[in-house]
Write a structure and sequence with these properties.
The complex is a heterodimer of chains A (about 180) and B (about 220). Chain A contains four helices and six strands, in the order αββββαβαβα. Chain A has about 180 residues and is an alpha/beta fold. In chain A, strand 5, helix 3 and strand 6 form a beta-alpha-beta unit. Chain B has about 220 residues and is an alpha/beta fold. Chain B has a five-stranded mixed sheet. In chain B, helix 7 links the parallel strand 4 and strand 5. The radius of gyration of chain B is 26 Å and the shape is elongated. The N and C termini of chain B lie far apart (about 65 Å). Classes of the chains: A alpha/beta (about 180), B alpha/beta (about 220).
């Protein structure tokens, strides 16, 4: 092949003035492949699931106990979130009858209580202990939404209840 | 009868049209993609069945990392409020933060605060690169007598006066409850009774009460 610039022309025959006209068509298959590859990449990197938000309304702290909402004690179930994803619960206002459950079974506990009580009185009290994780807390709040519990409140755990949790724990460990 | 000769056709298809479509879509996705902003604090949020998308306007975010440390930040679009909050804290606590320090901090994208008041001045002078190597103590919330989020929220409420502000609590799965409890107490003390918890959407468990209710009202049972 002669590569020496314009000097190539003189070698050709008298009838041939121009080089053979080349087609301008390019094979677009690789370009197309590349296009789709990039599309897939961008589809996957697009943030699809936006984080959702759980709306929370806090109750106002009332100093005067007479102003507090009255609830029927028997219609209340108290769930206490302990460590290692354990839940301690009792019905009514007697913490000594404390029972233990887990996050997997808590739905049955709540629904069972819900079935047995008057819907207008039914209330769940949530008490996350110092050992509970944030995940536990959000999960139990979410559980309230899942179980359609209309009234629930988040309250701090009292010292007596801490002792009772301790007791329940040792009692269960002994079994 | 001689069989008609079928001319051998080339199997090559004109790719131009397909290529056009491919690049058109590509252009669309490039423009539509919103990369996740590089977050200085990585937090695994818990799951929930909530369907409401977290607000992204006038947002005040309280982040709780996996060690239970609390950080405070204001969304990028609220620069004026951000400045006002810092000014309010500066005057209230006599921290002696200079305008230059404030400006430097304001220019950091997605800046957050994760130190007690007594370290705030030193913290503001640090560059984002320096911060990567420093373990921040977080804003103290656990002691009810020294819950500094109370002051931050008070300053925030003043700065956002007359505007609807969204308080977002973004906690890590592994963090313990007390930090969250501290933040709640701080909110309560400022009479800010409404806040949002940032969660990852998951589908409603099949067969649960909410699932049945959603089915009955004709809505889809999934949280999208």
């Amino acid at each position: 092949m002669d590569t020496s610039g314009g000097g190539g022309k003189h070698k050709k025959g008298p009838g041939v003035k121009k080089g053979k006209k080349l087609s301008t068509r390019v094979d677009l298959t690789p370009m197309c492949d590349l296009g789709f590859l990039l599309i897939t990449f961008f589809i996957f990197t697009t943030t699809m699931s936006q984080p959702t938000a759980m709306q929370m309304f806090l109750p106002k702290d009332v100093k005067n106990p007479e102003e507090q909402n009255k609830v029927k004690n028997s219609a209340v179930i108290t769930l206490m979130l302990g460590k290692d994803d354990k839940i301690y619960y009792y019905e009514g206002d007697d913490p000594t009858k404390m029972l233990q459950t887990t996050f997997k079974k808590v739905r049955d506990v709540v629904l069972d209580k819900k079935r047995r009580t008057d819907p207008k009185d039914f209330m769940v009290v949530l008490k996350p202990t110092q050992d509970a994780t944030y995940k536990n807390t959000v999960n139990i709040l979410d559980e309230m939404t899942i179980d359609e519990v209309k009234r629930y409140a988040m309250v701090d755990v009292s010292p007596t209840e801490y002792q009772l949790i301790q007791k329940t724990e040792t009692a269960n460990a002994g079994q | 009868m001689a069989r008609a000769k079928l001319p051998r056709k080339s199997t090559a298809v004109d790719m131009t049209a397909m290529c056009d479509v491919a690049f058109l879509l590509l252009a669309f996705f490039i423009l539509a993609t919103k990369f996740k902003p590089p977050e200085a604090l990585t937090v695994n949020t818990p799951n929930s069945v909530q369907t409401k998308i977290a607000s992204d306007k006038d947002v005040v975010t309280v982040t709780i990392d996996k060690a239970g440390k609390v950080y405070f930040s204001v969304s990028e679009s609220n620069r004026t409020e951000k400045g006002e909050i810092l000014d309010a804290i500066n005057t209230a606590k006599n921290l002696g933060i200079t305008d230059a320090e404030k400006k430097a901090w304001m220019n950091i994208p997605n800046a957050y605060i994760g130190v007690p008041f007594n370290q705030l001045k030193a913290f503001l002078t640090k560059t984002p690169e320096e911060l990567k190597h420093v373990v921040l103590p977080g804003i103290p919330v656990l002691d009810s007598n020294d819950n500094q989020m109370v002051d931050w929220f008070r300053a925030t409420a003043e700065a956002f006066q007359g505007k609807k502000m969204n308080v977002l609590v973004k906690g890590d799965d592994a963090s313990k409850y007390p930090s969250f409890g501290g933040v709640i107490n701080a909110l309560k003390k400022n009479d800010m009774m409404k806040f949002q918890i940032v969660t990852n959407p998951v589908a409603v468990p099949v067969g649960s009460e909410l699932y049945k209710a959603n089915m009955a009202s004709g809505r889809k049972g999934s949280a999208e």
